Amino acid sequence: MIKHVVMWKFKPGTEAEQEKFLSGLRGLLGVIPQIKEQEVGVNKGENNYDAVLVSVFDSMEDLAAYQTDPRHVAVASVCKEIRVDRVAVDYEV
Questions:
Q1: Which residues 6+ apart lie within 8 Å of 50 measured at CB?
Q2: Fold type of domain 2-92
């Protein structure tokens, strides 16, 4: 199994867009069949990344299918306009 972890820093003043983006991510669970598990969280501390996505896939091929799925691409396009930084890691569990 593959764990896919992504964190974002958002531009100030984009709170409405952030909520749209994070809600869109949450809405993909149960819609894109390759997603086995998913958590979307918002940072409560200071001086850290603003939000995180933790997803589980059966394989790297399933992760690749998710990343190119048009439903994911549509949600991700919202983020590209509001993010300052993005970091990710994919590892086997």
A1: 8, 9, 10, 18, 42, 43
A2: Alpha-Beta Plaits (3.30.70)
